[in-house]
Amino acid sequence: MNKGIQNEQELEEVTEDKNGILTWVKVHKKQLALIGISIPTLIAIVLGLKNKDAIKELFDNLKDEIEKANLYSSKWFENATDAELDTAREKVRLDYCSSGDDFKAACSLQNLLGRFDKEMSKRAWGNETPHAPSIHREHGWYLPNDD
């Protein structure tokens, strides 16, 4: 019988402790939330200060990649002067010629050359349709195409 009473007393103590802990958590929930937010922030700051050079290099590389992506954007093509288009196209053409076995880079540069040509043609012809010289057949323009 002593064991039964002892188990009941332990159960009551555990229940009281549990209620006490829940009450304490409810009272201190703001402080716990601040601790939960501030500890990871402090860890991030410490790691950031420790790896400051690596983070700076990462951001510099990211900045360079963004500038490269915006270098030949549609907005750049609209705002560039004819002289800028000529010099930039020549640079891209030389890169294309020296791409060697790098097929992916060659395709990308070839597409970029097409964008340059399209913009330069649009500026040269405006709203007009470009006209190539008419080509006559070998034996005369009046002969039928049935060879």
How would you describe the overall organization of this protein?
With 147 residues, the protein is an all-alpha fold. Helices cover 77% and strands 0% of the residues. The protein has helices at residues 2-27, 29-50, 52-71, 74-79, 82-97, 103-125. Helix 5 (82-97) runs antiparallel to helix 6 (103-125). The chain is elongated. The termini are far apart. The model has no long low-confidence stretch (mean pLDDT 78).
Q: Give the overall shape, derived from the CA principal axes.
A: elongated
Series of H and E elements:
HHHHHH
Instruction: Tell me about the largest β-sheet.
Output: none
Query: Beta-strand level of the residues, as a percent range?
Result: under 5%
Question: Total strand count, please?
Answer: 0
What's the gyration radius in Å? 37 Å
Our count of helices gives: 6
Q: Mean of residue pLDDT?
A: 78
pLDDT < 50 runs, ≥5 residues: none
Structural class: mainly alpha
**What level of helicity do the residues show?**
over 70%
Distance between the termini: 119 Å
Features of the shown structure:
147 residues, mainly alpha, 77% helix, 0% strand, elongated
Compact description:
It contains six helices and no strands. The chain has 147 residues and is mostly helical.
